Amino acid sequence: MMQNTLKALSLSVLLALPAGAQAFTTARGVQVNPLTDLVFEVIPSGSGDLAGFWCGASEYARRELGAGWTDKVYVLRERGPSETTGRRSAVHFTLYPEQTGVGPAPQGWLRFGIKAGDRMSIQSARRHCDQSIVEER
Q1: What is the pLDDT along the chain (137 residues), one digit of tens a residue?
Q2: Interacting residues of 64 by C-beta distance below 8 A, sequence separation 6+
Q3: 135 CB-contact burial (10 Å; exposed 0-12 / middle 13-18 / buried 19+)
Q4: HEC states along 92-106?
Q5: Residue 82 in contact with residue 89, Cβ under 8 Å?
């Protein structure tokens, strides 16, 4: 009975992905799933540190979407439940703020977490991948 439930859940997750979409996983185990042609979801392998979200977003944008180093990635939806996996923590990103309606977040020198409208160049976000590796050691 449990196996049938898990199979049904797995199938529903696969069917929820856009046609032809494939899950992408970084070397650190961060999973990234496309939600639409404009939006993708980053799901951390563990508790979801800030570095893991930005690292996953930059790796997916660069490798799967062909973004350049100076292109910007934007937070569309801050941390919340995953729409593709059912996990408790995921963040939605986009490379297309105008088409998705995301406006810039208020920028201040003292901010915590990851908020809708936050943005970073692909190159800057990629630096979080190196930071994450150092933190794990």
Answers
A1: 544 443 444 444 444 444 445 689 988 889 999 999 999 999 988 777 889 999 999 999 999 999 999 999 999 999 999 999 989 999 999 999 999 988 776 665 556 788 899 999 999 999 988 865 544 44
A2: 24, 32
A3: exposed
A4: EEECCHHHHCCCCCC
A5: yes
Taking the alpha carbons of 38, 101, 49, 85 in that order, is the dihedral positive or negative? Answer: negative
In whole angstroms, give the CA distance from residue 20 to residue 4: 25
Q: Which residue's structure tokens are 């449990």?
A: 2
Which tokens is 66 given? 């062909």
Residue burial 55-92, b: 16+ Cβ < 10 Å; e: rest: bbbbbbbbeeeebeeeeebbbbbbbeebbbbeeebbbb
User: Is the Cβ–Cβ distance between 34 and 95 less than 8 Å?
Assistant: no
Cβ atoms < 10 Å from Cβ of 103: 10
CB atoms within 10 A of CB 5: 9
